[in-house]
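For consistency, the fold was encoded as tokens, as this record shows:
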Amino acid sequence: MVLPAPATASVSPAPIQAPTVILPLPGQSRDQLCVDIKRTSGPLLILLVDPEQGVRVIGEYKVEKAQFSQIEVIFKNPQLQVHVSPEHVVVTRGQRSSEYKWKETLFVVMPGLTMTMDKAGLLLLSSPDKVTIGLLSWDGPGQGLRLLLRDTDRFSSHVDGILGRFYRGVLWGPPDATDDSKRTLRAHGFDFNATRKLKLDYQEGTPGTVISCWSVELYL
């Protein structure tokens, strides 16, 4: 008697994850850079600093959970701090603090800055002459706090920080001779291996859309 062959267990492909952050590439390109933070020397990270824009972005990153536990945006003019956690948003101006829940409709206009939040939970901090900074409590695959940037051509030449360096003199090497999905990216004196990958774009909220982007991993 011939026994039937044992059934082969099918292996489902790993779900496509949202990266730590998606950065619009500088210049005329509509392409995006997907950045994943893999290791840090400590939980607090200076993500962006631009003294001419008067803005600083600091994040507390939990490597074991692969997500930000807190992100703080500090503006010099107007003097304002926006502190976000997965639970809520706290806005501090002077001695006064206001707390908001994610997905709470918000529209605040003040001299030099407009702050809005829609029902998808996308918090935008914008100004006619500043980089637009977005914050989101993402609950899709790879859940956690997310940062997004718009109008990045407004960064000054003095922008710095872990993410800011990708907006200072970025140089791309040619595609790899044996694999055109790989190339080298030089940013602020550092070389990064970039690979073309599919990632989940969180920038419009859940459920997200699958995109192809150049992906780099940071070991800080």
